[in-house]
Amino acid sequence: MAFLSSLVNGLSLGSIYAIIALGYTMVYGIAKMLNFAHGDVIMVGAYIAFCGAQYWGLPPVLCVLCAMAVCTVLGVTIERLAYRPLRQATSLAVLITAIGMSYLLQNLALQIWGANPKSFPTDLIAFPNLSLFSGQLKVSGVTVVTVLANLVIMVALTFFTGKTKMGKAMRCVSEDRGAAELMGINVNRTISMTFAIGSALAAIAGVLLCTAYPTLQPTTGSMPGIKAFTAAVFGGIGSIPGAMVGGLLLGIIEILSRAYISTELADAIVFAVLIVVLLVRPTGLLGKQVREKV
Amino acid sequence: MKKMFALMLALCMLLAVTPVFAEETVTLKIAHIGPETGAAAVYGLATSRGAAIAAEEISAAGGKYKVEMIDEDDQHDAEVSVNAYNAAMDKGAQMIVGTTTTTPCIAVGALAYEERVFMLTPSASSTAVTADKDNVYQVCFTDPAQGSASAEYISQNALPTNVAIIYNNADAYSTGIYQTFEAKAKELGFNIVSVTTFTDDTTDFTVQVADAKNNGAELVFLPIYYTPASMILQAARTMDYAPVWFGVDGMDGILSIEGFDTALAEGVMLLTPFSADAQDEKTQKFVARYQELYNEIPNQFAADAYDAVYALVAASELAGITGDMEAEECCDKLIEAMQQITVEGVTGTMTWSANGEVSKTPTAVVIENGAYVGFNK
Question: Which end of chain A has less Cβ packing within 10 Å, N or C?
Fold first, then answer.
């Protein structure tokens, strides 16, 4: 039973990683850039939802919608101001800009909301805790909601990129930006759209993250952001189901190694597994094996 | 235009001459160094504000001394802290309240020892801060003192001795308290059933709490700061686990987390030298001013810094420090004076020993209905 409950805890952590990884992988897959500020957009989303619940007295659904709206605008603005001018620059320049953006957001949050950690209202997601095996195994409501949200988002994204016109444009941009432009696809608009979707997902991830682990401070998003990025690489960056699988596995490995091997070595074990996976499958678990044509 | 210029010159002269007539007041230049931005900003802002209030009160009181604070941010980074220290010294600081956190304090302490600058840290509680340095003093308890005091307290008050410990092994403060607590607990015959750790980045505490629960701990000792503590309490509630929670001074502040469900902290006990709800006049005045200026309840960091400024002024008075003395000259005089003064501050009545450690009595408080209540034997 202890093992089962560890597994459930791992699932709950993993589902959070997965939902963040979805945003990472979406932006990477299409814009071909690592948006290191993603973790901080999550933090902003969580703060907005917190303000909604705590100061403006909004109902939970409106809090989440409000957070999504703000994050979407934020994501598009960041893309417009910081990343678009660097479209022709080297990927290193874009990477450094993204890291700078991450610090900018953290310090802006520090200015606006202060350094004191805030406790996120856990009743924002009011889903009853499940109690299995006559109370021996507990699954928190947030975990159930997160897993469901993951599935819904995964299916929706797969449908969106596969079937809609905008989604197809995104895949074209991802495959060959120059050719896509020649075919009459508005690359800038497509990438803006990607950031809008990625950031809206970040807002949802922020609310779920902070409901599960209810401490909110300006650095809240950074570590989960890095772990989720790892999860995305683990599952195969650019692959939507890969992000989900990678996130869940990463969470489960982390919790199990913490419970059964060592709390100190847990992170080291997680990254060791990542290295092994990348050695065997360089593109990640579900990543596409693309042969470079010469 | 010329007339104007002459007038201004005259005015300048007048201003320059004035101190000669008022030679009774001496302005002390005290630097505060602490993290005011970054992840540990909450502590540095608290010490900066606590010190500022003390400086304001002392200056307004019209005694022998006025205090001018020089405020420097070190981002809880040893390198930045050394730069902040240099900047403060360039601005003419005579003594230092700081640094707030342990790691930078060790770095700055080494430099200040070489350059002979007196430091009184409000809150860097590791013994490494004062070790082998005669110029560094502490206002807070040392980590070992807190660990053994907690174990003794649990034993004397017949609290459960089936104990679990959850500590942050990436943090010198937490590890230090854990080690001395464990040593003392073994001596007193406690049954330590579970010891688990976490690091600064941990957000998931289910493993640690489950381990304590499955091993049947009736008391969980938390030598950690309040942010992870709030998450541990949350995780325990999800698991329907309700042991006695026992914290140290880092737990102080848990009630002021915005949005925190204080019902979670019901029954949490902690040893702390400062309680914002204390009824004495000094504490109430300090808390009221802090709330008025910063719109929040001061934590123990603010209180320690507040006391630190008062202690420095008391020591300066005894040592006869004047406004034109260099930091180097002040240092030896202050070291001598620190060991002789007794300061009655908001964190208790304090005296200092030659190794820089403070002596004061911790009080145990228990959280009832979202407020601290004194815990009586």
Answer: C
Q: Which tokens sit at B192? A: 């330590």
Distance in angstroms (rounded) separating the CA atoms of residues A40 and A52: 18
Distance, in Å, from the CA atom of B151 to the CA atom of B168, rounded to the nearest integer, reads 18
pLDDT-wise least confident of A127-136, A220-229, B141-150, B288-297: A127-136
Interface test with B, best of A15, A213, A252, A255 (most B CBs within 10 A): A213
Structure tokens of A36?
């290191």
Report ipTM (2 d.p.): 0.72
Q: In this structure, what token pair is assigned to residue B55?
A: 């400086």
B interface mutation test: which of A119, A124, A217 has the most B CBs within 10 A? A119
Number of CB pairs, chain A paired with chain B, less than 8 A apart: 94
Residue A183 lies in a domain: yes
Nearest CA in chain A to B199: A264
Give the confidence band of B289 by pLDDT, cuts at 50, 70, 90: very high
Mutation for testing the A interface, residue in B165, B207, B230 having most A CBs under 10 Å: B207
Beta bridge partners of B72: B33
Q: Which domain holds residue A243?
A: 2-114+139-280
- Using an 8 Å CB-CB cutoff, list chain A residues near B234: 122, 213-214
Distance CA B193, CA B158 (A): 18
- A88 part of a folded domain: yes
Pairing, β A215-216 against β A118-119:
antiparallel
Given a cut of 70, whether residue B166 has pLDDT beyond it is yes
CB contact under 8 A, A217 and B296: no
Q: Any chain B CB within 8 A of the CB of A271?
A: no
A119 part of a folded domain: no
Tell me the pTM.
Answer: 0.75
Contact yes or no for A115 and B45 at CB 8 A: yes
Domain membership of residue A286 (yes or no) is no
Are B258 and A263 a contacting pair at CB < 8 A? Answer: no
Chain B residues in contact with A258 (beta carbon < 8 A):
207
Return the CATH number at A264. Answer: 1.10.3470
CB-based burial, A74-83: b 16+ in 10 Å, e otherwise: bbbebbeebb
pLDDT tens column, B82-118: 999 999 999 999 999 989 988 899 999 999 999 999 9
Q: Which residues in chain A are closer than 8 Å to B197, comparing Cβ atoms?
A: 263-264
Q: What is the mean pLDDT of residues B157-183?
A: 88
Count of domains in chain A?
A: 1
Which residues of chain A are under the pLDDT cut of 50? none
User: Which residues, numbered 190 to 209 in chain A, qualify as contacts with chain B under a Cβ-Cβ cut-off of 8 Å?
Assistant: 209
Ordered by where they begin, the domains of chain B are 26-141+282-359 (3.40.50.2300), 144-272 (3.40.50.2300)
